[in-house]
Amino acid sequence: MRNIKELSLSELEAVLKEWGSPKYLAQELFSWIYKKGIQDFSKMSNISLEHRKRLKDNFSLVTLKLINKSVSIDGTEKFLFCLEDGNSIEAVIIPAKERLTGCISTQAGCKFACRFCASGALGFKRNLTCAEMLDEVLYLQSSHKLTHIVFMGTGEPLDNYDNVIKAIRIINSKPALGIGARRITISSCGIVPGIQRLSREKLQVELSISLHAADDKTRSNLMPVNKKYPLSRLLSACRDYVMDTNRQITFEYVLIEGVNSSLQSAGNLSTILRGLRLAKVNLIPANPIKELGVKPPGKLEILFFRDYLLKHGVNATLRLPRGQDIEAACGQLRLRYEKK
Ligand code: SAH
Questions:
Q1: CA distances (Å), 310 to each of 126, 298, 303, in order?
Q2: Could you tell me the CA-to-CA distances from 77 to 107, 144, 286, 292 in Å, in that order?
Q3: Do 49 and 42 contact (CB within 8 A), yes or no?
Q4: CB 98 within 8 A of CB 83
Q5: Closest by alpha carbon to 251, among 229, 270, 224, 225?
Q6: Would you call 330 a catalytic residue per the annotation?
Q7: Fold of the domain spanning 64-339
Q8: Hey, which of 89, 223, 284, 330 would you mutate to test ligand 1's pocket, going by the most ligand atoms within 8 Å of its Cβ?
Q9: 161: part of which helix (H) or strand (E)?
Q10: Whose CA is nearest to atom 1 of ligand 1?
Q11: In sequence order, which residues have a C-beta less than 8 Å from that of residue 39 and are 6 or more positions away?
């Protein structure tokens, strides 16, 4: 049976029209499911019994099952969920000043095998459906009022393009969650055709690119996806994206000891970003992952790296790692769990 959360408002309206039911019922259903978070047709009290039965006979409303929850001393909360087919996924809530950000997974596992990332270590299982991603958001939303959503959990959003965009449109739509597109971020390891498609989408979402290295040798070594979409192609797609959308791109740069944190790397980074309008660099000291031998550089090296970029006109900020005590870096909780 089809999960009702696979349907956009207009698709739901079309089904209701086919049934000869009033169109406004679609808005009402959206309000119950997304605004009130009710995941049971029989509790939708202002919908007639007859309609509730018909909906129940035609659609499912399954949700995620929580397996584990951990809370960091910095307030980060991490959730591990079980899907209907037994796969597991993670979602995280990150509080910061006036923001409450939900970090959503887009795939069970990941095919891209970045060397420093725990998600890739378990391989790829499958794409998440639109409903499953919405369920992550709804679960987080049930205890908190999220202000921002980042598609930065496990998986590659641009490798599950259609489902991610559909979920974003529903999160964005007023009768559902009404979270503004500018408060929604897609983070990608650099899938060039996906970036090109996104620039034509007429959706004001934020785009983050996980760059992590500024020369092809280092980047291919860290991120095998670079062999398919090397830096020249990636940066050219980014330039076009900025031209077409007039939107800023944030480049994520995870600093890993002995790999990409020297001043020479900083020099390469400032060189390749030259000429890219509206580029911002987010420096993130690597979350240590014992299993992968990943460590952040020392504090001084991190500050030298940042200062070099600032001196050379790169708009760089240093982001503190969050939730380290609960292993909230990409896929770490899941890695522990699946190993058991
Ligand atoms: N596939 C997408 C989104 C998932 S990864 C992407 O690559 O952007 C989300 C972010 O977490 C990426 O920037 C990724 O590089 C980063 N990340 C993965 N492992 C990390 C670690 N050990 N320390 C810090 N950041 C990490």
A1: 40, 19, 10
A2: 20, 11, 19, 24
A3: no
A4: no
A5: 270
A6: yes
A7: TIM Barrel (3.20.20)
A8: 330
A9: helix 161-172
A10: 156
A11: 33, 61, 63, 138
The amino acid present at 259, given as its one-letter code, is V
**Alpha carbon distance 312, 330 (integer Å):** 31
| pLDDT value, residue 340 | 45
Domain 4-58 class, CATH top level: mainly alpha
Q: How far apart are CA 133 and CA 160, in angstroms?
A: 11
More confident residue, 321 or 332: 321
Q: What are phi and psi of 5, to 5 degrees?
A: -75, 5
CA terminus-to-terminus distance, the chain: 32
CA separation for the pair 80, 185 (Å, rounded): 21
pTM assigned to the model: 0.94
User: What are the extents of the domains in the chain?
Assistant: 4-58, 64-339
- Best of 198, 222, 228, 254 for a ligand 1 pocket test (most atoms within 8 Å of beta carbon): 254
Express each pLDDT in 322-334 by its tens digit: 677 666 655 554 5
**90 tagged catalytic:** yes
Average pLDDT over residues 34-59: 96
Q: How far apart are CA 7 and CA 38, in angstroms?
A: 16
Q: What is the DSSP letter of 294?
A: B
Distance, CA of 21 to chain centre: 36
Query: Could you report the per-residue pLDDT of 164-181, keeping only the tens digit for each?
Result: 999 999 999 999 999 999
**Cα torsion angle, 321, 323, 325, 331, sign:** negative
**Which residue in 6, 13, 90, 132 is the catalytic one?**
90
State how far the Cα of 21 lies from the Cα of 26, in Å rounded to an integer.
10
Scan for tokens 């996924």, then name that residue: 89
